Amino acid sequence: MPMSFNQSVIDEFRANGGRVGGPFAGGDLLLLTTTGARSGRPHTVPLGYVRAEGLLLVVASAGGAPDHPQWYRNLLTHPVVRVELGAGSFDAIAVPAEGDRRKRLFEEAVRQAPGYGEYQAASDRELPVVALEQPEPPEDSPREVRSLADKLLEAHTWLRAQLRHVREEARTHIPGRPAGLGLQLRQHCLAFCEGLTHHHTGEDSAIFPALARSHPELAGPMARLGAQHLVIGRIRDELVALLAGFERADPDRLRAELDRLSAELEAHLDDEEAELLPALAGIPFPPART
Ligand SMILES: [Fe+2]
Ligand SMILES: [Fe+2]
Asked: What is the distance between the alpha carbons of residues 260 and 16, in angstroms, rounded to a whole number?
């Protein structure tokens, strides 16, 4: 199969620290990698971007095509995306703007890159404007990561901070409609849920089995911690189901679910740290290369 045009742009971007020639020379281009809504596979596209109001923005114009591009549909299912910009890269949470905010940001995008106005005129869709938010590292980030214990604490700190942030957002959330949550809260909640799933999957599939071999005395506590993962996983599933119907979802119900999740998760993280940190402190991270 001949290499696609997109793939040749991606290759050139990566080979030249984010600089691309041809029709994109001098333009503001980034690479966005989303996770396939159905396939779960990474999907990378080169996209123009604009900056406005301190935000990094991409427009799901698809050249004015009638349907949203695949990357946009993907990020509604998996809000955590990878952004390559210049020679650097970072994870971001993709948050489509809504209402007046979208209108304002779109006007600014058109001011900077008039082509978006032409695409909008050619399409019946309202072209989505998506902010690629780079989450700030929590203030209480642990120091340098040298052991698996540090790595665990780093992940727990991230989870605690994200959940705090989402609960705060849910608490102060005043939807613009009689019911409904808004895309911003939905995307942040979903990103937290994905991070949580990722963390627990890693523990269940890698950390716990490895510890069970090196520290058989921890079998009992790890069985208890694994059972806590299941309880937390069920609350998370309910939360995700609620978010699927976010346009009609009851904010009070979301707050109640988040409170329940928070109580279980905080207790679990404390329990896990008390039981496992001493053993994990003896395991270097990143693993030594042999
Ligand atoms: Fe855990
Ligand atoms: Fe954990």
From this structure: 48
| Residue 128 and residue 152 in one domain | no
Question: How far is the centre of ligand 1, averaged over its atoms, from the C-alpha of 191 (Å)?
Answer: 18
Range of the domain at 177: 148-280
pLDDT digits (tens, 9 = 90+) for 165-223: 999 999 887 655 555 678 999 999 999 999 999 999 999 999 999 999 999 999 999 99
| Distance of CA 136 from the midpoint of ligand 2 (Å) | 20
Q: 240 and 155, same structural domain?
A: yes
CA of 146 to the centre of ligand 1 (A): 20
Please provide the average confidence, as pLDDT, over all residues in the chain: 91
pTM comes to 0.90
- Residue 11 sits in a domain of what CATH number? 2.30.110.10
Determine the distance separating the centroid of ligand 1 and the alpha carbon of 278, expressed in angstroms: 15
Are 38 and 92 contained in the same domain? yes
Q: Nearest ligand, CA of residue 232?
A: 1
Residue 141 lies in a domain: no
- pLDDT over 90, % of the chain: 78
Instruction: Tell me how far apart the alpha carbons of residues 96 and 132 are, in angstroms, rounded to a whole number.
Output: 9
Q: Measured in angstroms, how far is the CA atom of residue 152 from the centroid of ligand 1?
A: 9
> Do 155 and 97 share a structural domain?
no
Quote the number of domains for the chain.
Answer: 2
Pure H helices in 16-147: 70-77, 99-112, 115-122
- In angstroms, the CA 190 to CA 256 distance is 16
Centroid of ligand 2 to alpha carbon of 152 (angstroms): 6
pLDDT in tens, 46-83: 999 999 999 999 999 999 999 999 999 999 999 999 99
Q: Look at residues 90, 94, 6 and name the one whose alpha carbon lies nearest to residue 47.
A: 6
* Ligand 2 midpoint to CA 89 (Å): 26
CATH number at residue 232: 1.20.120
- Chain Cα centroid distance, residue 165: 14
